[in-house]
Design a protein that fits this description.
Number of strands: 16
Helix content: 25-40%
Strand content: 15-25%
Strand order of the largest sheet: 3-2-1-4-7-6-8
Order of helices and strands: EHEHEHHHHEEHEEHHEHEEEEEEHHEE
Shape: globular
Structural class: alpha/beta
Length: about 325
């Protein structure tokens, strides 16, 4: 039995449901704790009544750690949300005394294999974190490690590291000044604490900022990276405009091979999740922050928007190779 946790609001509800559906396909025994950051996501997920899921409200976390209320009052909303990553892991470990370990996983992840191939890589370790694995190693301006998957064992070292991280995110989750939300604190884990394992496996750390330097192939129904099966992918900065329009990534180049083998199947799964949500709540609408709206406009202008029609993917407009970030 694996114990996992994540959080999201209504804007990432479809991603979160898609993550859950991927886990169900790959793993028969797990518990996923979901912190719903608004009533819309809580109400829809309550009606769905998903097996192996425990739902939480913001109030559950603020009652568990009242310091969150102070953090909420002194920073922007997105920076406040970053406080929940460490706090929800702490909450689950305190609430579920049977859990030997808890793994946090981002809502925009998608699992292609059993969790046992990810979580039990180093069974003797207390904490596991994953490298960004940028194409260019110098591009670690958001930290060397990514928050997408983090494992904490119920042990002296695991709890010591988790509590330090929890305390630091309450102090600051600023996007800059050497902090960058909840993420750059991970750089300190191997320096300050024993029992920390660094995952450097690309089949677990695959993301838009590193995928293009690896060889993608297919073996029957399995996506392969450099000859090994893809275990999980981080669909960071993915935008779904409606059930047929998608912007896979705004500022990173994606080859046609990547789009077809990795992104198009994910779009199909996102569409299924969107339809499930709409069946529960016909008024549900995809919504994004101003930052993502700008990204959507730029994606359309520069030909990075795609139409999913049946099992085919078509680019909207003419691709203009401008404004890509170097990774």
């Amino acid at each position: 039995m694996y114990t996992l946790c994540t959080y999201f609001d209504k804007n990432y509800l479809v991603q979160g449901l898609t993550l859950y559906r991927s886990l169900v396909k790959q793993e028969s025994k797990f518990t996923l704790w979901i912190l719903c950051l608004d009533e819309t996501s809580f109400d829809i997920l309550t009606k769905l009544n998903l097996p192996s899921v425990n739902l939480l409200r913001e109030q559950d976390l603020t009652e568990f750690d009242s310091r969150l209320l102070r953090a909420k009052s002194n920073r922007p909303l997105i920076q406040y949300y970053y406080c929940f990553t460490a706090t929800i892991v702490n909450y689950v470990l305190h609430t579920d005394q049977q859990a030997e370990a808890v793994t946090y996983i981002d809502a925009d992840m998608f699992a292609y294999t059993s969790l046992s191939q990810i979580i039990t890589q180093q069974p003797g370790k207390d904490v596991m974190i994953i490298e960004h694995l940028h194409k260019t190693k110098e591009k670690n301006y958001h930290g060397k490690f990514n928050v997408s998957i983090i494992y904490f064992k119920r042990s002296y070292n695991g709890l010591k590291c988790l509590n330090w991280w929890n305390d630091m995110t309450i102090v600051s989750t600023k996007l800059g000044d050497g902090v960058w939300g909840d993420q750059m604190y991970l750089d300190e884990f191997p320096k300050k604490f024993d029992g920390v394992h660094i995952i450097s496996d690309i089949s677990i750390g695959a993301a838009p900022w590193n995928i293009e330097v690896h060889t993608i192939s297919r073996k029957e129904n399995t996506v392969m990276l450099n000859g090994s099966s893809l275990k999980i992918f981080h669909f960071a900065r993915f935008i779904m405009l409606n059930r047929s329009l998608f912007i896979p990534i705004k500022r990173a180049y994606l080859s046609r091979k990547t789009l077809i083998e990795i992104y198009m199947p994910y779009m199909m799964e996102m569409r299924k999740s969107y339809d499930i949500v709409k069946q529960i709540d016909k008024t549900y609408k995809l919504g994004y922050t101003l930052r993502n709206l700008r990204g959507a406009l730029l994606g359309i202008i520069f030909g990075r928007c795609f139409v999913l029609f049946d099992k085919f993917l078509f680019r909207v407009g003419i691709h203009i190779p401008f404004g890509y970030e170097e990774h």
